[in-house]
Amino acid sequence: MSDQTASPGAAFEPPTETARPARLRDLASVSNILATDVAAVLVDRFGRRAATEAIRAVLDEARQAVRLGAGPAPTPDELATGALARLEAHARSDLRPLFNLTGTVLHTNLGRAVLAEAAIEAAVAAMRDPMALEYDLASGRRGERDDHLRALLCELTGAEDATVVNNNAGAVLLALNTLAGGREAIVSRGELIEIGGAFRMPDIMQRAGARLVEVGTTNRTHAKDYRAAVTPETGVILKVHTSNYRIQGFTAEVSAAELAAIAEESHVPLMHDLGSGTLVDLARYGLQREPTVREAVAQGAGIVTFSGDKLLGGPQAGFIVGGKALIAAINRNPMKRALRVDKIRLAAIAATLELYRDPDRLAERLPALRLLARPQAEIAAQARRLAPLVARAVGEAFTVAACDCRSQIGSGALPLDTLASSGLVILSRGGTRALERLAAALRNLDWPVIGRIEAGGLVLDLRCLSDEAVFLSSLSGLDSHALA
Asked: How confident is the model at residue 197 (pLDDT cuts 50, 70, 90)?
């Protein structure tokens, strides 16, 4: 067998040299193959049991090849190498780093926000050693894991108290169950959103045990609609930020401040779900303005919920901030334990929030914000620099050119707003199928490259490409001849 690497999943390819047909008795035994130097590596990496099973599988394929009239029988070393390739292919995880060149910065399917180095370091430290997760070092008694974040969240949002769960859907579920379980929750029809994965707000409310009371119409809801809906059974008035769509034209909605006044006069809390919440004014970085958590708190909401892994740029989390009495009730809910976060994520969240205490350097330290605010001129220069290098990697069957394109934020944030960007457009001389083969080959690299096919070309939006050297090294794994 040659020294070419076997393709993923292919354990053995019979030699093509012309020679006398192989016989079954020419094949080595399992024990003989295990005695080779290659098999020693195989056993060391994967264990004797897995190595033996892989060798048997490769032998079965070799026997089938012999029965079909293959040439000379593979040697024990070749069979062991085939078993090694087989196990390596099976061991390669699909959950591995990749290049997100889709143009969607906070891509839900690709893990959303890339974490800051400070968050990564904090998470690694939490993995390596024991931590005072629920232990009060000052008193030597049991502590609360929320204590690691409470002061930071209150400082950054202006809220009286705060807690955290595994994601914002969990935050909404927990808060609604606490405030309106078995009672009514009033919400505008225009705010009954559906988020990614077909999760709908009415379904979450139902699972929380709240009885949905819709007010207004899809496009217009007024203060009088909320006032008329309040009854002794009302547990909460809910406002949902429609971050993943916009209704335009003949519209009307009640502001959070006005809703807070209605809630106060009705003696029920206002819960404001910001979805992809932000702690800073994004306009400062050249992005479309979004309501901040601090503004929602100041407008009088009793509870504000928002995500950690979207515009905030941290790990997946759901934050609940608001009044002390309401947060205390939420923390007493038995569901809180089922939704809590572990020490690793807690450490990464705390490190991310710390970055917000220095807003002047936030964009350079927080990858999500840095990528969103990246100037097009910088990306365009990168595209011109990389175009000839990528053209060489994909081969003469394709043309590669720098192009202007539009990026989007993603994860339901600012859906109508796009960002001027640049990238590479790859066109095929062999038609659509050749382009699809190239896209598949890019996805199958050790460090996959994910772009988007549009208007007959494969577009690689470079907004999120920060490591050119690794990118080009990964492209060296392409077989341009096979793509032709």
From this structure: low
